Amino acid sequence: MYVMAYAPYGADGIIIRVEVDIRRGIPGIDITGLAEGAVREARERVRAAFRNSAFPFPQDRILINLAPAGVRKDGASLDLSIALSVMAASGFIPVPENLMALGELELSGRIRPVRGVLAATDAGLRAGLREFIVPAGNAEEAAILASGRFAAAATLTEAVQALMVRAETGALPPEPVLSAPGNRSRPPAWGDFAEVRGQGRYKRALEIAAAGGHNLLVFGPPGAGKTMLARRLPSIMPPLTPEEAVEVTRLHSLAGQIKPEAPENTGGAGGGEDPYPRGEPCLITHPPFRSPHHSASAEGILGGGRTIRPGEISLAHFGVLFLDEAPEFRSNVLQALREPLEDRVITIARAEGQVRLPAEFQLILAANPCPCGRLGMRSGRDCFCSTEAIHRYWRKFGGALLDRVELRVAVGSPELQNMGQGGEETSAEIARRVQRAVEIQGERFKGSPVRRNARMPPAFMDRFCLPSETAEKTLTAGAEKFGFSGRAYHGILRIARTIADLEGKDSIETVHVLEAIQHRIQGEDPYDILSPEE
Prior knowledge:
The protein is α/β, with parallel strands linked by helices. It is built from 20 helices and 18 strands.
């Protein structure tokens, strides 16, 4: 007899067939199939859970095989499937052939929640499985895709009772009544753009970035509002589509980012304040905003580990990765972002093969102008950084990474006399423009894998980024004057397309190109490339 199980690994995980053979011999349990530590220890947890749940444990030799045998298995999510397989092999309970069971057993017989339940139900449904038993704490996750096909069990006894009901009625007992996933309104904890005074150019750049999915670099002295505004970016971003929401939630589930006991969305501030109220459905319906600390390792950012898990760039899939104090990150971490930004996927190579994790994110970098942060401040305080220290500070970015950042914004210290003035545009007003621009792009790229202008390939640019004759001359003149690379040239065209979308214009005009160039360069006026008659 066997029960199907699931082990998180990479972006897809592994479906495991738990086979049990009971034969006469010295009582004991043998586990084969490249079981790692937590899986090998399951035999003691299962034995104790049987005893404390008042179930008889077979006093024979038990062989448990985890197929496929050539793949390493780790984690405690196989406990419940092992226990049910042993019961089925001993003839205690009937088990249907298309059943997947997930859960970690406590010695008392209680079932602890596990990570990857959404990914498990997704993989199981695609593999033809139709029935699932999951921990009660993961019921919200299972309901996203397997509603009506799963039973939620808090104890081993409840799991056995569910299978008994299945044997009598032909169906698992009804699942608990849950609130419908995906009905969450925009959380207020993100803050509002109107709370930040001034910094109009920075706000405009964030609006363009939200509408087109563009990368952005902002630099300026401490206290200028770089982080404050960046953390408000989710307040103007449109919600995810249902398909995007499932994919993002699946990655967070694989990484153990979904809180099981009180299901909530953790896709907001990575490692920071959770903007979602407790008790809400665990489906992530808004673009995730991840903000790792600068001490994060390469594996933490890119993904990996002994059992490969999604990193921050995958947890920011269809959302934003914000690197505050970006030059303080390790150089190897910053430079490793180049390929995922281009390919929208991170490939992790291991001896047993390659694992590909999705990583379609937009990058927001924030930096000081120099290591001490005083360079260019109007307060009169001197900057004591040497020229070499400043160069070393900025060299950590590297030209190849910066060339992939289409928007650059220099911010200054806010004018104190303007701090008390109101009249700032609210996030809701900006979000309406962004939503219209995103809808335009949705129609433009319908039927293709492209979502936003920032990901538009050159073949699409020939169709959708055709500037007017004057605008094309302006772009050519700007490219020659400022020495743009080919990637920068295309980046400016994509930004101009997004600006035109925000205005609801079909064609790219000169004013759109000039604003795009202005967001690319610093310290020079792009308007001086125009001829007098323009």
